[in-house]
Amino acid sequence: MKNAIVTGASNGIGLEISKKLSENDYHVGMIDVDKENLFKESENISNSVAIEGDVTNEDSIKNALDIFNKTPDLIVNNAGIVIFGGLEEQSIEDFKKSVDVSLIGSYLVSRLAITSMIKKNSGCIINMSSCLLYTSDAADEGLGVDLGGRRLI
Questions:
Q1: Distance between CA atoms of 82 and 39, rounded to whole angstroms?
Q2: Burial, 61: exposed, middle or buried (Cβ in 10 Å; 0-12, 13-18, 19+)?
Q3: Which of 56, 85, 92, 143 has the most crowded Cβ, counting Cβ within 10 A?
C-alpha cells in the first residue's frame, strides 16, 4: 500500500481526491484546519487518517507529518482559499492570507516532507491550481500570484 498526504481534505476537491486515493489502495493522511468536517468525512474513507493541521504553520505541519508517521509516496497540495471580489475591494490582509495558504502552505508541506521522500528515492508532489489562473477575471480576484506561484515549487 502506498501513502499519500492530501491538504485541504475536509471538503470539495481535496475530499474527492482522498476518496479516490483510498479506492486505489493508498493510505491517506487527510490534513485540514476544519477539524469537525475532516473527522466526520474521514470516517467514511477506508485507509485514511484525519489530521488537524494548518498549512501556514510549520509546527502544525511537523506535528501532522509525525501523526501520519509514514513517508508519503504522494503529496497533493490542495489547501487554498480564494477571496472573491475585485482587487480594489480586497485588503492586503486578505491577499496575504490567500498567499500564505495557497502558496506558502504548499511550499511548507513539500519542504517538510521532501527529505524523507528523497531518502526513499521515491515520491511525487502535485500542487493543485485553477483554470481561473488563465482567465481575465483571475487578476481581478488576486488568483494569479498565489495559484500561479504553485507552478514554481
A1: 23
A2: buried
A3: 143
Counted residue by residue, the chain has a size of 153
DSSP letter string, the chain: -EEEEEES-SSHHHHHHHHHHHHTTEEEEEEES-HHHHHHHHTTSTTEEEEE--TT-HHHHHHHHHHH-S--SEEEE-------S-GGG--HHHHHHHHIIIIIHHHHHHHHHHHHHHHHT--EEEE---GGGGSTHHHHTTHHHHHHHGGG-
Q: What gap in Å lies between CA 139 and CA 104, rounded to an integer?
A: 19
Asked if residue 48 lies in contact with residue 17, where contact means CB atoms within 8 angstroms, the answer is no
pTM for the predicted model, two decimal places: 0.88
